[in-house]
Write a structure and sequence with these properties.
By secondary structure, the protein is mainly β. Helix content is 11%, strand content 30%. The chain has a 6-stranded antiparallel β-sheet. A 5-stranded mixed β-sheet has the order 4-3-5-6-9, with no helix packed on it. Residues 13-20 and 148-157 have low confidence and may be disordered.
Length: 167
């Protein structure tokens, strides 16, 4: 099944009605990232949401990562790499790099201590988040829904893509 069919379905899923006013659906954009996500998509409705390569309490808030992505040397993903946050004062979702060693790219914009800016906004619809260098295999697709409802208005989630999901 073509990857574009899955992306289209996820875009429809991100625009489906949800229990809260805002959410992000995250899916792996590469085979390595899909493996790290257990070949599933995640609907995020609680923020901040921490992404990193540790399952032990090491992130800035003292908690574990919400999304653990196993990585091996040479590391692309830091222990507590970044977090997805809702900034009410700015009215949108942001990715904040949590002082990762190699930085994060959000829709092509590099953020992190090496790049002089620690966050970047996520737009409505599809966004690309790369953990580490530009050629990193840890590429995530984040579909943002800021409270818009589905076109059918019945509250039902969209049907999966034709042929289901790849194994």
């Amino acid at each position: 099944m073509p990857w574009t069919a899955i992306k289209g379905w996820l875009g429809r899923l991100a625009n489906a009605p949800i229990a809260g006013p805002r959410s992000i659906v995250v899916v792996g954009g590469t085979a390595v990232a899909r493996e790290g996500l257990g070949h599933r998509s995640l609907r995020l409705e609680r923020f901040p949401f921490v992404i990193g390569r540790t399952a032990t309490p090491r992130d800035a808030s003292g908690g574990i990562c919400d999304l653990y992505l196993p990585d091996e040397e040479p590391y692309q993903v830091s222990r507590s790499h970044c977090r997805l946050v809702w900034r009410a004062e700015l009215g949108g979702f942001y990715v904040e790099d949590t002082e990762s060693k190699l930085g994060t790219a959000v829709n092509g914009l590099r953020i992190g201590r090496r790049f002089g800016r620690d966050s970047a906004p996520l737009g409505q619809g599809e966004n690309v988040i790369i953990l580490g260098q530009d050629d990193s295999p840890f590429r995530l697709l984040a579909f943002v829904d800021e409270g818009r409802s589905s076109s059918n208005g019945d509250g039902a989630l969209p049907a999966p893509p034709p042929g289901g999901f790849p194994a």
